Amino acid sequence: MRRILSYDGSFEGFLTAVFTVYEERILQPTIQPTERGVENFFDTITPIISDPKKAERVWKGITQYCSKKALSNIYRAFLSEKKGIEDILLHFIKRSLSEKKQLENDYGDAFVLEISKVVRMVNREKHRMDAFVRFKETKDGLYIATVSPDFNVLPLLKKHFTSRYADQCWLIYDLKRNFGIYYNLTCTSEVILEST
Q1: DSSP bridge pairs for 146
Q2: Which helix (H) or strand (E) holds 183?
Q3: Which DSSP helix (H) or strand (E) runs through 173?
Q4: β 170-174/179-183 pair status
Q5: Are 124 and 117 in contact (CB under 8 A)?
Q6: Three-point CA angle 79, 20, 63, nearest 5°
Q7: 26-54, pLDDT tens digit by residue?
Q8: How far apart are CA 85 and CA 77, in angstroms?
Q9: pTM above the 0.85 mark?
Q10: CA 178, CA 192: separation in Å to the nearest integer?
Q11: Phi and psi angles of residue 126, each rounded to the nearest 5 degrees, phi first
């Protein structure tokens, strides 16, 4: 019997679920976003509420034994939204914490190899967005671009577009995920459009 930890789909929610695995000493966990969790006779679903303090504790613990590259890989693999990626990342995190060493180059581990493959796909999609996002100017001088990337790469685009278009206000909106990033000449912020 597995225990499904159902979280809100955010990175903070995922890290909170990882915290719960350790806090409750769950032996056979699986972590899934709420929209994917399906109850059945054999598994139990536990809803996880995102907790910034718990998420931060997990992240701090991971940073003790993972390189910057491994931390980036964890985040980028998470952004892939690939089915089952949470369990792959949980395996990597648990192994890193128990062995207390850097494992990102241990390609003999099928999970580490899978993370590497997924990160390459996410990086390709990020570079594709960097190159092909095209803005249209609105009447009020705001530049808008809509995208539908294969992976959730919008959080990775902030730095590139903030430096490239630092002198104009812009909005890049992900139609597939219903959120965007907005730059107002001083900082970026996330934007979610409410459906009417």
Answers
A1: 173
A2: strand 179-183
A3: strand 170-174
A4: antiparallel
A5: no
A6: 55
A7: 988 999 998 875 666 677 889 999 999 99
A8: 7
A9: yes
A10: 6
A11: -60, -45
